Amino acid sequence: MAQPPGPHNTSDASGSFGADLQRLVAARFARETPDGPTPIAEVPLSDAPSPSTLGLMLGHRSCRQYSDAPLHDELLDLVLAAAFSTPSKSDLQQCSVILVDDPQRRSAIAELIPTMPWIAEAARFLIFCADGRRVRHIGEGHDVPFANDHLDAVLNAAGDAAMHLSSFIWAAESVGLGTCPISVIRNHIEEVAEIVELPDHVFPFAGMCVGWPQQLRRLSPRLPMSVTVHRDRYQESDTAELIDDYDRRRAGDYQPPPNQQVDVDRWGAADFYGWSLEKARMVARRERDQLAGFLRRQGFGLD
User: Fold this and answer.
1) pLDDT tens digits for the chain (303 residues)?
2) Residues 27, 47 share a domain
3) Please, are residues 7 and 54 in contact by the beta-carbon 8 Å criterion?
4) Are 278 and 144 within one domain?
């Protein structure tokens, strides 16, 4: 019987796709290859999903433009089955997904977020929920108390929802679907929970648009792994310089007209508008103050 490739033998594991994997890594993280760095622009938008998991993940692009082709239940169920096969914290399985198929409910959610028309335009819209309700009911059924009503219970359920959402993306993209997660539903967490009638101990973690892509976005560069991957201890001695280099590399993606810069009325128009400036301005906006109160009203302890 043939043996699977060893864990470090990437040429065997990826077969003829090895060179393309290196190209995707070089483009995503601005790494050198034998032929020099690969500009993002040289990674075509029309690339088909890779036959390898690594290639699929390295080539991920969000989709915000969808065709009008339907996404039938049979395929969606298969993708969801793959997503629910992901690891779960202590096998507690604290994720639930709401398929928002009712036109009125979906329209009500889309109207809350008019800047994201793809919520209404994608073939299907889902809500991934952190679900701490089931495990409590299981305990009640066995006459066993739930002894961990504190912040970790929220983190455990949210972690399950995040992992299942991520797995859904890779499963969907492996069959050619496009996806776009919608975290901004937490800006409207009370309204969304009411629209889809969430009970106590369940909260919406993120929405998910899914459908057949009409057009994919360009490959989005990521911070160099020298910023995000640490060895033995947290290190940030060169972080400022590395992020500045990253800003310069992404300049083509982050030079909108002055009137499209984040909160230009508050901060003024910047001559150079890099990724770090945009993100700094974004988190300078205070939002989601209602989350803790909502979670408490849903029955979660936050101590």
Assistant:
1) 333 333 333 334 334 346 666 777 777 777 666 666 566 555 554 444 445 888 889 889 999 999 999 999 999 999 999 999 999 999 999 999 999 999 999 999 999 999 999 999 999 999 999 999 999 999 999 999 999 999 999 999 999 999 999 999 999 999 999 999 999 999 999 999 999 999 999 999 999 999 999 988 888 889 999 999 999 999 998 999 999 999 998 887 778 888 899 999 999 999 999 999 999 999 999 999 999 999 999 999 999
2) yes
3) no
4) no
What is the helix (H) or strand (E) element at residue 126, kind and residue range?
strand 124-131
- Do 161 and 38 lie in one domain? The reply is no
Range list of H helices, 198-283: 225-228, 239-249, 264-267, 275-283
Residue 252 CA to residue 71 CA, distance in Å, equals: 34
What gap in Å lies between CA 210 and CA 77, rounded to an integer? 13
* Structural domain containing residue 38: 18-55
Amino acid letter, residue 281: R
Structure tokens belonging to residue 281: 């301005």
Whether residue 169 contacts residue 238, with contact meaning beta carbons closer than 8 Å, is answered with: no
- Strand runs (DSSP E) across 109-250, as ranges? 124-131, 178-182, 202-211, 213-216
pTM metric for this prediction: 0.85
Question: Which 3 state secondary structure label does DSSP give 300?
Answer: coil
